[in-house]
């Protein structure tokens, strides 16, 4: 169809109507998807096989079935299919998708059985693993002992319980929303890293948008986790010998929502975000939730500021010193290490049983109501 017959032709192809305006570009849905996906695909270039590479690396993609990680999977899969379709095309890596059941983290989350079934039918080439959060005890055998030590005398750890009940009892002992969200994030990160190690993955592709990374950077500092921000927001090596990468770091959450809206194959896979209620008391929200709200509200008005936060955080250099003491729970540097706060945390009773843990983890302990 000639461009002159269109009321608002797409700026790129000039053959279809504009559907989205993104970063001052008016694009049809196909060109929008191409424009957005390019920002992710160019981050995959470091995996382009060289002449000397003999073994194709494996990449782990943790999928929450939320919009962001589902869009990331869709983009990466599209790139792999594109590479496979070329006559002499080489696939950059093999993809392994990890789904940690959301209902194992919060029982109020609905079953994902139907979504998972559609996922396997839609994207057939990756390998899949589906786990519950309490499977961390199988993947990180030391975790039972670590949690027992970490919880301290205020928590009666019962080793006769099942993994599921034992972890539930520990999580239920955490008194504040901030500490509970903080520890859930630590446990999820440890489980993802352990699965990546077990399957010999070179990297983990996290589905965090620019907005989410900005919120995490701001929340991390206020939770005393500044020293471990490096691998939580910037691309590079994690303490577990697996690279952590954030391929969606150039994209805002609103752009990912728009992308998902023109991907019909995702409609029965994605679990939409629960709407942010204005009626929730602020004191009942974790710092992470507060920061996500703040970034979403401010990011809508001033997107440049939030992308600056995430971009600046990506320039952080690791403060982990070779051989330096690291936290048994989260893997971050412990106190008195270059780059850390140098604060030594103690429990209210003044004991020192928490000394194998960092300041950020100590603040979330069951007996520290802060
Ligand atoms: Zn177009
Ligand atoms: Zn820690």
UniProtKB/TrEMBL annotation:
<dbReference type="GO" id="GO:0005829">
    <property type="term" value="C:cytosol"/>
</dbReference>
<comment type="similarity">
    <text>Belongs to the CTU2/NCS2 family.</text>
</comment>
<dbReference type="InterPro" id="IPR019407">
    <property type="entry name" value="CTU2"/>
</dbReference>
<dbReference type="GO" id="GO:0032447">
    <property type="term" value="P:protein urmylation"/>
</dbReference>
<dbReference type="GO" id="GO:0000049">
    <property type="term" value="F:tRNA binding"/>
</dbReference>
<comment type="pathway">
    <text>tRNA modification; 5-methoxycarbonylmethyl-2-thiouridine-tRNA biosynthesis.</text>
</comment>
<protein>
    <recommendedName>
        <fullName>Cytoplasmic tRNA 2-thiolation protein 2</fullName>
    </recommendedName>
</protein>
<dbReference type="InterPro" id="IPR014729">
    <property type="entry name" value="Rossmann-like_a/b/a_fold"/>
</dbReference>
<keyword id="KW-0819">tRNA processing</keyword>
<comment type="function">
    <text>Plays a central role in 2-thiolation of mcm(5)S(2)U at tRNA wobble positions of tRNA(Lys), tRNA(Glu) and tRNA(Gln). May act by forming a heterodimer with NCS6 that ligates sulfur from thiocarboxylated URM1 onto the uridine of tRNAs at wobble position. Prior mcm(5) tRNA modification by the elongator complex is required for 2-thiolation. May also be involved in protein urmylation.</text>
</comment>
<dbReference type="GO" id="GO:0002143">
    <property type="term" value="P:tRNA wobble position uridine thiolation"/>
</dbReference>
<dbReference type="Pfam" id="PF10288">
    <property type="entry name" value="CTU2"/>
</dbReference>
<dbReference type="GO" id="GO:0016783">
    <property type="term" value="F:sulfurtransferase activity"/>
</dbReference>
<dbReference type="GO" id="GO:0016779">
    <property type="term" value="F:nucleotidyltransferase activity"/>
</dbReference>
<keyword id="KW-0963">Cytoplasm</keyword>
């Amino acid at each position: 169809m000639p461009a002159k017959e269109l009321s608002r032709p797409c700026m790129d192809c000039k053959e279809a109507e504009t559907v989205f305006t993104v970063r001052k570009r008016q694009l049809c849905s196909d060109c929008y998807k191409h424009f957005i996906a390019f920002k992710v695909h160019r981050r995959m270039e470091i995996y382009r096989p060289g002449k000397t590479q003999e073994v194709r690396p494996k990449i782990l993609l943790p999928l929450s079935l939320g919009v962001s990680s589902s869009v990331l999977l869709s983009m990466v899969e599209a790139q792999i299919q594109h590479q496979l379709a070329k006559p002499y095309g080489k696939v950059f890596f093999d993809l392994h998708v990890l789904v940690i059941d959301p209902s194992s983290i919060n029982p109020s989350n609905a079953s994902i059985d139907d979504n998972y079934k559609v996922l396997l039918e839609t994207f057939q080439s990756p390998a899949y693993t589906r786990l519950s959060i309490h499977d961390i005890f199988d993947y990180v055998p030391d975790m039972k002992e670590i949690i027992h030590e970490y919880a301290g005398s205020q928590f009666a750890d019962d080793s006769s319980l099942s993994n599921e009940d034992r972890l539930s009892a520990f999580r239920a002992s955490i008194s504040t929303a901030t500490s509970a969200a903080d520890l859930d994030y630590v446990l999820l990160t440890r489980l993802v890293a352990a699965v990546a190690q077990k399957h010999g993955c070179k990297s983990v592709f996290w589905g965090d948008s620019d907005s989410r990374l900005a919120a995490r950077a701001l929340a991390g500092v206020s939770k005393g986790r500044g020293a471990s921000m490096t691998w939580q927001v910037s691309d590079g090596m994690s303490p577990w010998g697996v690279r952590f990468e954030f391929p969606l770091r150039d994209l805002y959450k609103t752009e990912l929502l728009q992308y998902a809206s023109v991907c019909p194959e995702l409609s029965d896979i994605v679990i939409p975000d629960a709407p942010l209620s204005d009626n929730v008391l602020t004191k009942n929200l974790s710092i992470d939730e507060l920061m996500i709200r703040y970034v979403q509200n401010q990011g809508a008005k001033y997107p440049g500021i939030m992308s600056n936060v995430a971009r600046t955080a990506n320039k952080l250099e690791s403060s982990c010193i070779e051989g330096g003491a690291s936290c048994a729970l989260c893997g971050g540097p412990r106190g008195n290490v270059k780059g850390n706060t140098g604060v030594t945390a103690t429990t209210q009773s003044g004991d020192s049983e928490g000394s194998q843990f960092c300041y950020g983890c100590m603040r979330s302990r069951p007996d520290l109501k802060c």
